Amino acid sequence: MSRLSFRPRPLDIHKKLPILKSIKDFEDDEAPSTSSSTRNSQLLRLAPEANNEMHQNSLKKSSSEIPTPQFNVVGTYERDYSRTFAQPPSYLRGRGARAEIREFVEYDLDNEDEDWLQELNHEKKILAPERFETLLFKLEVLDHKARERAGIIAPTFGSSVPVLLQLDTAAEALQAHSVRSAVFPSVYNYWKAKREQWQKPILRRLQPPPPVNDTNPYNVFRPREKAHRLHTRRMQRRENNVQSFEKLRQVRRNLDQARTVLEALIEREEKKREVMESEVSLQRIQIKYRHEAQLIEDGFALSGFPSNSWKFGSSEDDFLDSDDTTSGHRRAQSAAVQNPPFTDSKLIVVPAGQMKREMRRRPLPHGWLRKKDLDEPVLLFTRPLDPDKLAAASIVQPPDPPAENGSVAPPYRFQGRIGRGGRIIFDRWNPHLQAPIVNEVNPSVPPNNRPPQPNG
Amino acid sequence: MARAPRTAAIRTRTDTQPLRFSPAVQMGSIEGAKAENGVAAPACNGGDQRNGGGGGALPDGEAEAGRRGKVGAAAAVLPLEVGTRVMCRWRDQKLHPVKVIERRKIPNAGPNDYEYYVHYTEFNRRLDEWVKLEQLDLDTVEADIDEKVEDKATSLKMTRHQKRKIDETHVEKGHEELDAASLREHEEFTKVKNIAKIELGRYEIDTWYFSPFPPEYNDSSKLYFCEFCLNFMKRKEQLQRHMRKCDLKHPPGDEIYRSGTLSMFEVDGKKNKVYGQNLCYLAKLFLDHKTLYYDVDLFLFYVLCECDDRGCHMVGYFSKEKHSEESYNLACILTLPPYQRKGYGKFLIAFSYELSKKEGKVGTPERPLSDLGLLSYRGYWTRVLLDILKKHKSNISIKELSDMTAIKADDILSTLQSLDLIQYRKGQHVICADPKVLDRHLKAAGRGGLEVDVSKLIWTPYKEQG
């Protein structure tokens, strides 16, 4: 099988990859001659140590011969740069930029300046180059300040930068430099002419950068477009004006309304929960009642009372139709009867004799309670099935199971009811009581009595 | 990513249509991570170049001349036209094929006395220079027959690239990425070096490429740089006068690393704008495809210095965006020529990754890498990764390697794959870490350069103030 017949999965960088320490493990046994897998092994096989050394040497040799432009050592270096630097023991810290250091003259004379100065001096010493440098620097700074005050500092280099500084203002400001009054105007005029020729400040720091849309590669160090700071389209659309203010106010109003609605919703849901809780406790109480009734019944059974004779419940089927209010009403009735009122079904320790008497006296509530399934409040929501209606809907009750051993089948009946989802449910065996559903026409059989014994 | 197809496209172009310069493969020196644009010496034709470059004497050139068809001395009309191919005596006293790029009249000389700016076709254009007529062997002059064919092929290619350019231009980059069209434009602008030499501290250095100095400096072929503040002047006296007042003895930022005589300074382009700009002007002289398009205030400059009793002398530097949205940890890198091949470049690369580790980020150099930049980076990646694989015993994921080294996962994958150390077998990827194989690759990757002692790095990542 060729190794190329399947495509490798893309490598998952989070997956831990096995590291094979031997090249032999790494090579695929199935296709040892495939070029891709054997490069490394060939490297090992074909390049013994000596060979490799030679290869390295030749590489080194050729790399040393690769030409680059040359460089020389400057003869005057040792003289130009003084040996005055001593490294402090701690790491050096940067100071502020030069612009912040007042006394430093940032400007360096260029060829033009030097030539002009030489002409001015005529072998005499009218103006020292350092002094000239200082003057030009101060003129530049003063002019920049004047333009700053006039508010015409261009952010980028569009048109030529005008000279704003006047001779008399400059002379006044530079009095402290005690330049001879005859020299200063010529320096000023030289500077102004130079500025007008350059059309921009001669101090590089003060030159405006080229405009953003200028594509001339000779112009460098553009400012970055402001728009680039806005990363998303939404941020680009948002501006600081009345319109967006109104928009944001609208957003705020909407959010406030949404909050009001939500608060009302929460209130409603809390009320609903209260209602639900009261319903639940209501049903609990109903269940307790029924449970108690069951115990009473058990008490009857234990005392050997002939339960078969109980017939009174047969006419009470209508309770299944009853809604909460009627059953609640009945519950209230029975609660009134019970004395003392119970709080928990487990507490029922009523003597059987007394219970008996009460049963006889008040058969009605006991009857419906007894008939109901102990743990199934579900029945509250069900109605009795009308066999006629079922038949009309062509729903047939399941047939009785066949008789066993030829004997008479016990009177099994299915109890039909409507389940919570609206389905029709036929119960054959009560899962809670583990007893068959008794015949509706013979409801007097107590659930625990298990009458349908084959031979009974 | 959009980048991959472009690189491939440029390679295609390089293969089919050589430019005026033929790239020379240089080992061991870094010329700049982002220079060259992949145009110079892609791996596929590197081998040829090495043969030509290493040899010295040039049988290749002769053969080429023969193929083109000699025009002969009789046809050599003076002055030579731009585009003429001819043999030229180089500094090794041997004849090399050149192409005339530009010519200029020699002042105060006869009407036909010209100097010629020539490109040595077998070398990188960093070696282009002005030569006198005596250096040219006029017997070998040939007309440039295939010029038109080349141009046609180029223009066809260009339109396709231009289309692509519209889609792919990344305006936000500090350094625009060049495609074939802008590359041509770039060459047109920069075909002749404006500054031939610079003086910087102890060294007078021949420049390598054009740099867009302000127009006032255009008439000067040599510039004098102040070694410390990097201000540049046209006359030696100006520099000497400047040195008397210059108060700097080291780059104007904070020292963040010191080991022996080696110090690293961090300079904020915003706080020291003029210094940053000076540094860029200077660096461009040695980097072909660096651009100075945008201002320096969004960058930090890490300037490596050798210190003595005269001050801290710049050896090289790398720049880094303050906030990179593409996780770049390095924009430009340069070792100055007098300090090349001494391991400083690898130190700078290692340093950039140490900063990334301190930031808790994974980083990668800004693309495209130059041939030399890629070579240095491959060497660094190989060494770092293979050292880990040698020691590591249990399984390891690419992500874990990335977390350990601050190298981007893509770079790790490409490194291991190029060494054939990752393979897919039996349904999963495995890494080969045979010690013998690793040692061989490590040897081929070259020396490690100067080590970065992390304990001596005192640095906190950049935070915007205010």
Automatic annotation (TrEMBL), chain A:
Its main location: nucleus. Residues 248-286 form a coiled coil. Residues 444-456 have a biased composition (Pro residues). Residues 437-456 are annotated as: Disordered. Residues 36-140 form the Enhancer of polycomb-like N-terminal domain. One of its GO terms (biological process) is regulation of transcription by RNA polymerase II. It is found in: Nucleus. It comes from the Eukaryota. The keyword Signal does not apply. Signal peptide: none annotated. The keyword Coiled coil applies. Keywords: Coiled coil, Nucleus, Transcription, Transcription regulation. InterPro entries: Enhancer_polycomb, Enhancer_polycomb-like_N. Pfam families: EPL1. GO terms for cellular component: NuA4 histone acetyltransferase complex; nucleus. Belongs to the enhancer of polycomb family. This is Enhancer of polycomb-like protein. It comes from Phoenix dactylifera. The gene is LOC103718936.
TrEMBL record, chain B:
Pfam families: MOZ_SAS (PF01853), Tudor-knot (PF11717), zf-MYST (PF17772). It is an enzyme of class 2 (transferase). Keywords: Acetylation, Activator, Acyltransferase, Chromatin regulator, Metal-binding, Nucleus, Transcription, Transcription regulation, Transferase, Zinc, Zinc-finger. It is found in: Nucleus. It catalyses: L-lysyl-[protein] + acetyl-CoA = N(6)-acetyl-L-lysyl-[protein] + CoA + H(+). Residues 41-65 are annotated as: Disordered. Its EC number is 2.3.1.48. GO terms for biological process: DNA repair; regulation of transcription by RNA polymerase II; response to UV-B. One of its GO terms (molecular function) is histone acetyltransferase activity. Residues 49-58 have a biased composition (Gly residues). Residues 190-461 form the MYST-type HAT domain. Gene3D superfamilies: 2.30.30.140, 3.40.630.30, N-acetyl transferase-like, Winged helix-like DNA-binding domain superfamily/Winged helix DNA-binding domain. The keyword Zinc-finger applies. InterPro entries: Acyl_CoA_acyltransferase, Chromo-like_dom_sf, Chromo/chromo_shadow_dom, HAT_MYST-type, MYST_HAT, Tudor-knot, WH-like_DNA-bd_sf, Zf-MYST. One of its GO terms (cellular component) is chromatin. The active site is at E366. Belongs to the MYST (SAS/MOZ) family. This is Histone acetyltransferase. It comes from Phoenix dactylifera (Date palm).
